[in-house]
Protein backbone atom coordinates (compact mmCIF):
# COMPACT_ATOMS: atom_id res chain seq x y z
CA UNK A 1 0.00 0.00 0.00
CA UNK A 2 1.49 3.33 -1.08
CA UNK A 3 1.84 6.03 1.61
CA UNK A 4 -0.44 9.01 0.82
CA UNK A 5 2.14 11.40 2.30
CA UNK A 6 5.49 10.37 0.78
CA UNK A 7 4.36 7.76 -1.80
CA UNK A 8 6.68 5.11 -0.33
CA UNK A 9 5.41 1.64 -1.23
CA UNK A 10 5.99 -0.13 2.09
CA UNK A 11 4.02 0.20 5.31
CA UNK A 12 3.45 -1.79 8.49
CA UNK A 13 -0.03 -2.73 9.68
CA UNK A 14 -0.50 -1.45 13.24
CA UNK A 15 -4.15 -2.39 13.81
CA UNK A 16 -6.83 -4.38 11.95
CA UNK A 17 -10.57 -4.26 12.67
CA UNK A 18 -13.53 -5.93 11.04
CA UNK A 19 -16.42 -3.67 10.08
CA UNK A 20 -20.02 -4.42 9.10
CA UNK A 21 -20.03 -7.95 10.50
CA UNK A 22 -16.82 -8.82 8.68
CA UNK A 23 -17.85 -7.45 5.27
CA UNK A 24 -14.94 -5.02 5.29
CA UNK A 25 -11.67 -4.52 7.13
CA UNK A 26 -10.12 -1.28 8.42
CA UNK A 27 -6.34 -1.22 8.75
CA UNK A 28 -4.20 1.40 10.46
CA UNK A 29 -0.80 1.55 8.80
CA UNK A 30 2.54 3.25 9.45
CA UNK A 31 4.80 4.19 6.56
CA UNK A 32 8.25 2.59 6.93
CA UNK A 33 9.88 5.65 5.29
CA UNK A 34 8.24 8.75 6.85
CA UNK A 35 6.57 7.13 9.88
CA UNK A 36 3.19 8.80 9.28
CA UNK A 37 0.03 6.82 9.94
CA UNK A 38 -2.89 6.33 7.57
CA UNK A 39 -6.00 4.18 7.28
CA UNK A 40 -7.01 1.79 4.52
CA UNK A 41 -10.20 -0.16 3.98
CA UNK A 42 -10.65 -3.53 2.29
CA UNK A 43 -13.80 -5.16 1.02
CA UNK A 44 -14.51 -7.86 -1.50
CA UNK A 45 -15.27 -6.45 -4.90
CA UNK A 46 -18.36 -8.40 -5.80
CA UNK A 47 -20.19 -6.20 -8.28
CA UNK A 48 -18.89 -6.48 -11.82
CA UNK A 49 -21.88 -5.31 -13.81
CA UNK A 50 -22.54 -3.29 -16.90
CA UNK A 51 -25.30 -0.71 -16.57
CA UNK A 52 -27.51 -0.21 -19.61
CA UNK A 53 -28.73 3.38 -19.57
CA UNK A 54 -32.07 4.56 -20.95
CA UNK A 55 -30.41 5.75 -24.18
CA UNK A 56 -28.84 2.30 -24.72
CA UNK A 57 -25.36 3.42 -23.68
CA UNK A 58 -23.41 0.96 -21.53
CA UNK A 59 -21.05 1.78 -18.68
CA UNK A 60 -19.49 -0.08 -15.75
CA UNK A 61 -21.46 -0.09 -12.51
CA UNK A 62 -20.01 2.34 -9.95
CA UNK A 63 -20.98 2.13 -6.29
CA UNK A 64 -20.08 5.78 -5.69
CA UNK A 65 -22.26 6.97 -8.56
CA UNK A 66 -25.23 5.02 -7.23
CA UNK A 67 -24.65 6.35 -3.72
CA UNK A 68 -24.36 10.03 -4.75
CA UNK A 69 -28.12 10.17 -5.38
CA UNK A 70 -28.83 8.27 -2.17
CA UNK A 71 -26.64 10.63 -0.10
CA UNK A 72 -28.41 13.63 -1.64
CA UNK A 73 -31.80 12.11 -0.78
CA UNK A 74 -30.61 11.45 2.80
CA UNK A 75 -29.21 14.97 3.29
CA UNK A 76 -30.12 16.24 6.78
CA UNK A 77 -31.96 13.02 7.58
CA UNK A 78 -31.17 10.82 10.60
CA UNK A 79 -29.20 8.30 8.52
CA UNK A 80 -25.68 7.45 9.65
CA UNK A 81 -22.65 6.74 7.46
CA UNK A 82 -22.74 3.14 8.68
CA UNK A 83 -26.39 2.81 7.64
CA UNK A 84 -25.49 4.17 4.20
CA UNK A 85 -22.65 1.68 3.86
CA UNK A 86 -24.94 -1.20 4.83
CA UNK A 87 -27.55 0.19 2.43
CA UNK A 88 -25.05 0.10 -0.45
CA UNK A 89 -24.08 -3.47 0.47
CA UNK A 90 -27.74 -4.52 0.48
CA UNK A 91 -28.42 -2.91 -2.90
CA UNK A 92 -25.35 -4.58 -4.38
CA UNK A 93 -26.41 -7.95 -2.95
CA UNK A 94 -29.80 -7.50 -4.64
CA UNK A 95 -28.06 -6.63 -7.92
CA UNK A 96 -25.84 -9.71 -7.67
CA UNK A 97 -28.91 -11.87 -6.95
CA UNK A 98 -30.21 -10.94 -10.40
CA UNK A 99 -27.27 -12.93 -11.79
CA UNK A 100 -27.05 -10.90 -15.00
CA UNK A 101 -23.91 -9.35 -16.53
CA UNK A 102 -25.91 -6.34 -17.74
CA UNK A 103 -28.65 -4.56 -15.87
CA UNK A 104 -30.86 -1.65 -16.93
CA UNK A 105 -30.37 1.54 -14.94
CA UNK A 106 -34.12 1.51 -14.28
CA UNK A 107 -33.77 -1.82 -12.42
CA UNK A 108 -31.02 -0.32 -10.24
CA UNK A 109 -33.25 2.68 -9.52
CA UNK A 110 -36.14 0.42 -8.57
CA UNK A 111 -33.94 -1.61 -6.18
CA UNK A 112 -32.59 1.60 -4.62
CA UNK A 113 -36.13 2.89 -4.13
CA UNK A 114 -37.28 -0.37 -2.53
CA UNK A 115 -34.40 -0.23 -0.05
CA UNK A 116 -34.79 3.52 0.60
CA UNK A 117 -38.44 3.00 1.50
CA UNK A 118 -37.37 0.99 4.55
CA UNK A 119 -34.35 3.16 5.39
CA UNK A 120 -36.03 6.58 5.47
CA UNK A 121 -39.42 7.56 4.02
CA UNK A 122 -38.48 11.20 3.40
CA UNK A 123 -35.31 10.15 1.57
CA UNK A 124 -37.45 7.73 -0.44
CA UNK A 125 -39.79 10.53 -1.57
CA UNK A 126 -36.83 12.81 -2.38
CA UNK A 127 -35.14 10.10 -4.44
CA UNK A 128 -38.40 9.13 -6.15
CA UNK A 129 -39.11 12.75 -7.10
CA UNK A 130 -35.87 12.90 -9.07
CA UNK A 131 -35.78 9.29 -10.29
CA UNK A 132 -39.37 9.28 -11.51
CA UNK A 133 -39.08 12.89 -12.74
CA UNK A 134 -42.28 14.08 -11.10
CA UNK A 135 -43.76 16.73 -13.37
CA UNK A 136 -46.60 17.78 -11.09
CA UNK A 137 -47.85 17.54 -7.53
CA UNK A 138 -50.26 14.75 -8.52
CA UNK A 139 -47.39 12.37 -9.29
CA UNK A 140 -45.77 13.24 -5.96
CA UNK A 141 -49.04 12.59 -4.17
CA UNK A 142 -49.31 9.17 -5.85
CA UNK A 143 -45.87 8.24 -4.52
CA UNK A 144 -46.77 9.38 -1.00
CA UNK A 145 -50.10 7.52 -1.16
CA UNK A 146 -48.27 4.38 -2.33
CA UNK A 147 -45.89 4.71 0.61
CA UNK A 148 -48.76 5.13 3.07
CA UNK A 149 -50.63 2.12 1.64
CA UNK A 150 -47.65 -0.14 2.38
CA UNK A 151 -47.65 0.75 6.08
CA UNK A 152 -49.60 -1.37 8.56
CA UNK A 153 -52.80 0.45 9.56
CA UNK A 154 -52.63 1.57 13.23
CA UNK A 155 -55.91 -0.16 14.18
CA UNK A 156 -54.67 -3.52 12.83
CA UNK A 157 -51.43 -3.22 14.84
CA UNK A 158 -53.43 -2.71 18.07
CA UNK A 159 -55.33 -6.00 17.66
CA UNK A 160 -52.08 -8.01 17.62
CA UNK A 161 -51.02 -7.10 21.16
* Average pLDDT figure: 84
Shape summary: elongated
Please give the number of β-strands: 6
Topology order in helix (H) and strand (E) letters: EEEEEHHEHHHH
Ranges where pLDDT stays below 50 over 5 or more residues in a row are 154-161
Cα separation of the termini: 56 Å
Largest sheet: 3 strands, antiparallel
Count of individual helical segments? 6
- β-strand amount: 15-25%
From the alpha carbons, calculate the radius of gyration and give it in angstroms: 21 Å
Oligomeric state as shown: single chain
The helical percent reads 40-55%
Strands side by side in the biggest sheet:
1-2-3
Describe the protein in words.
By secondary structure, this protein is of the alpha+beta class. Helix content is 46%, strand content 20%. It contains 6 helices and 6 strands. The protein has helices at residues 63-73, 81-97, 105-119, 121-131, 137-150, 154-159, and strands at residues 11-19, 24-31, 37-43, 50-52, 58-60, 102-104. The strands form 2 sheets. A 3-stranded antiparallel sheet has the order 1-2-3, with no helix packed on it. A 3-stranded mixed sheet has the order 5-4-6. Strand 1 (11-19) and strand 2 (24-31) form a beta hairpin. The longest helix is centred in the middle third of the chain and has 17 residues, at 81-97. It is elongated. It starts with 10 loop residues before the first strand and ends with a helix. The relative contact order is 0.10. Residues 154-161 have low confidence and may be disordered.
Amino acid sequence: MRCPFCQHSESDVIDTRKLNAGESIRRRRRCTACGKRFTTFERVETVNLTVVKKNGEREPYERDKMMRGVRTACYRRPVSAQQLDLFANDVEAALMALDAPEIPSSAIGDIVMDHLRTLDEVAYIRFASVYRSFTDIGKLREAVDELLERETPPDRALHHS
